[in-house]
Fold this protein.
Amino acid sequence: MLTFTPMNETFHPSSSRGDTICAIATPLGGAIAVVRVSGSQAIPITDRLFSKSILQSPNRSLHYGTILYPTGQAVDEVMVSVYRAPHSYTGEDATEISCHGSPYIAGEILRLLLDAGCRQATGGEFTLRAFLNGKMDLSQAEAVADLISSSNGATHRLALSQLRGNVSGRLADLRQQLLHITSLLELELDFSDHEELEFADRSQLLHLSLTLQEQLGELSASFRSGRAIKEGIPVAIVGKTNVGKSTLLNQLAGEERAIVSDIHGTTRDVIEDSITIHGVSFRFIDTAGLRATDDTIERIGIDRTYKKLNESSVVLWVVDAQPSSAEIAEMEKRCTDKQLILVFNKSDLPGSPSTLTAPLSSSHRCGIPVISISAKIGTGLDELRQLIYDGAHLPDLHSMETVITSARHYDALCHAQSNLQRVIDGLHLGLSGDLLSEDLRLCLNDLGEITGQGVITSSEVLNNIFSHFCIGK
């Protein structure tokens, strides 16, 4: 029968898990610094440095006192929090020392802990121990890093959702259904002497496999939006020279990010800045003006413009005159898989072509959303921001319970889909239960890679994940 071994019995990190570790868990220079300690000797070691005994302190208790040098001289007045296993972040005995935010004070406390027998924690080691001790699964551990690095409302919501187990819960349900199928098939193998016995109804098995394949497809499809939200949605600002692309970027960014000049070809390389719209990060890219030129450097910039256009999800085509039908056709051809928005700039100038385009925030030409703005004085920018947000075609993050943001998760889901498709094909061909069972095992392993369930998660994968964590977390 199919069995799985808990991760903490198969993975052994390079450093001993019996060590008691410590690290400064907060950025230095603030009003307060927190020094974390975790391991079997966390409480006794902290007790030796503290002016009050905490050896018998109850779990989740808070103590005011002084951290002392071995000579009895005070280092700082602190608050010490005591956590007893398994009721701590790591699942081990742990303490947290809250001191004044002086880098010197925090450094001295850390040095005293190291002298007393602690080891400096490596990046992500506290969270790694939480995973190994069953306090969270691997996808939740990754969400901790995402939550720390979240820079806007959207990435915060996605990370918090994953940390709360939405991804884990969805995958656990899928794995449970696959385990049920596999168990029935392997039960048949146990009674292989009785070929007439069939514990797994093939029609029900096919129906369930197709349903699971559809659910895996939905999860995989969410990665496109999840990755865009996590990394920032790329928006290319393109157009001819001197139409106001750099001025538009500066207005959207609220600062002088790009040089503005009446001289044609001033912008010769791409300039990027991130701007938040409705809680989602957009990466705006100001590009070199599109025109015929013999200038080698400017030509390189124009080539990069087309490259950034191809990489973007939304394209702002900035013009200050009516583009020709040929220009529209060319730009539409380049933007077949992305949202193109035609931006008439310089509406503040009397008699400019852009002033002839009526209220254009909801108008379209040739199927392209069109808007009239003045990048110089800032009119029409709120409407433009809304068009950009709508053009990203983002899902409703408030209603979506599960969004995949990790390339590692997406890769595992794709492998799971591939293996489950072989099960479906095998059922159509009438293959034997042992062949079907093997593909189901592979599918289970793929899903297990995401959450760290079973023997499938290698130390290489774990080391790669936790190496990106900050020290102290």
Q: What stands out?
A: The two ends are 38 Å apart (CA to CA). Confidence is low (pLDDT under 50) at residues 1-15, 257-269, 354-363. The longest strand covers residues 74-83.
